[in-house]
Design a protein that fits this description.
CATH class of the largest domain: Alpha Beta
CATH topology of the largest domain: Rossmann fold
Distance between the termini: 50 Å
Structural class: alpha/beta
Helix content: 25-40%
Largest sheet: 5 strands, parallel
Strand content: 5-15%
Strand order of the largest sheet: 1-2-3-7-6
Shape: globular
CATH superfamily of the largest domain: Thiamin diphosphate (ThDP)-binding fold, Pyr/PP domains
Radius of gyration: 24 Å
């Protein structure tokens, strides 16, 4: 079940929430294990991208949202789809291009959404483009009085695209109720993070735009959920966007065709020892939140669901040929209307009218503006520059690099 409200940010997760997180993470991995088998049987018609080792991020962040909130997942966010209420059969049939899939077999990967009920925006293949899109959804929701929060995900490689920076700047200046989850899984295809950017914590990229930015252990679902829940509360309160950098590791190649031989064995072993599901199982046991019977019941529930939905997908037909010419253009197939949750008079004249002149507190000079906030003086700037030069010129201490 998808959570409708997940409590105060100051209270610890309940036992049921902890068990839900385990359920969705285990279901996430089970779905992908089945799809790997389907891919090897040549039943998956497109690419297949694994989130092995990253399940805590998709599940922990999406679980912090409410039903009214919106998400835009990417290729490694099947866990977020499951939390939102997408059944495994939709994911199976979508990747198998079956007629019973959400896109009627017209797409063989993860490009599907649900704008009406589940509030899911379809993925966009161009990395970073969902950031301005979901910023726009957040702004529209605020304008319509919907009190929503929007969320999307991006990888470390995608954080170097122009759309990433343009979208973050837009979100920051508009104080949009928007959360960006930056999955730092150490590899942009075959390029390590250290060869892509000169910083270790990619959360710094959000801080550069004045956005609240935090770094969390992406393999600790309890930590991810706690941080995400606080981010949702900040956005809902109107305090602007949040960037969450979740440090993790992509445990398989970029896609099924990639053996990832470029990954050092020692690095893989380091992250294998930090498997997010194993860590949650240990947490549940040590805190006496379950026993062997409770674990068995959850695992059996998942097994039954996967078998039923896999059978449905395998026995579903392929799309008929004539479907190819249908749905190319929208010809009255659905209505597009704003869903107002506030009186329109609040955002139309005369209530929304204002003087056609800006009020600028800081004039932008070196010295503080008259009557404005204190600004940096030229002397202070000079001292700062001199301090940085002295720091660079200082000899390195022994034993440090």
């Amino acid at each position: 079940m998808s959570p409708s409200a997940n409590g105060s940010t100051n209270t610890p997760a309940t036992r049921q929430q902890c068990l839900d997180l385990y359920y969705y993470m285990r279901l996430n991995r089970g779905v992908e294990d089945q799809m790997t088998k389907l891919f090897r049987q040549n039943k998956i018609v497109g690419g297949l991208y694994s989130s092995l080792g990253q399940e805590a991020i998709s599940v922990g962040t999406a679980y912090a949202l409410e039903k009214r909130d919106w998400i835009a997942p990417m290729i490694r966010n099947i866990g977020a789809l499951l939390v939102k209420g997408v059944p495994p059969r939709d994911i199976f049939t979508q990747h198998m291009a079956k007629y019973t899939s959400p896109t009627f077999g017209k797409d063989g990967t993860s490009h599907f959404g649900d704008l009406t009920n589940l509030h899911i925006v379809s993925p966009i293949s161009m990395l970073g483009d969902l950031i301005p899109v979901m910023t726009g959804v957040a702004m529209a929701g605020r304008y319509l009085g919907q009190d929503i929060v929007t969320m999307t995900w991006i990888g470390d490689g995608g954080s170097s695209t122009g759309a990433f920076h343009e979208g973050l700047n837009l979100a920051a200046t508009q104080r949009a109720p928007f959360i960006l989850v930056l999955e730092n899984n150490q590899w942009a295809y075959s390029t390590p993070v250290s060869r892509q950017v000169p910083i270790r914590d990619l959360a710094e990229r959000g801080r550069a735009y004045g956005i609240t930015s935090v770094t969390v252990d992406g393999n600790d679902v309890m930590a991810v959920f706690t941080v995400a829940r606080a981010a949702v509360a900040q956005c809902r309160a109107g305090n602007g966007p949040v960037l969450i950098e979740a440090k993790t590791m992509r445990m398989k190649g970029h896609a099924q065709h990639d053996p990832a031989e470029y990954v050092p064995k020692e690095m893989r072993a380091y992250w294998e020892a930090r498997d997010p599901i194993a860590r949650l199982e240990k947490y549940l046991t040590e805190n006496k939140l379950w026993d062997a019977k409770a674990k068995h019941e959850i695992d059996e529930r998942i097994e039954v669901l996967l078998k039923k939905d896999l059978d449905f997908a395998e026995n579903s037909p392929m799309p008929p040929p004539e479907l190819a010419e249908q749905g190319v253009y929208c010809e009255g197939c659905h209505a597009i209307e704003a869903e107002w949750r506030r009186p329109k008079s609040e955002v139309t004249p005369p209530k929304s009218s204002g003087a056609a002149a800006w009020k600028v507190a800081d004039f932008g000079g070196i010295e503080a503006a008259p009557g404005g906030p204190n600004g940096a003086t030229a002397d202070a700037a000079s001292r700062s520059i001199a301090k940085r030069k002295a720091s660079k010129a200082a000899p390195a201490k022994k034993g440090r690099r």
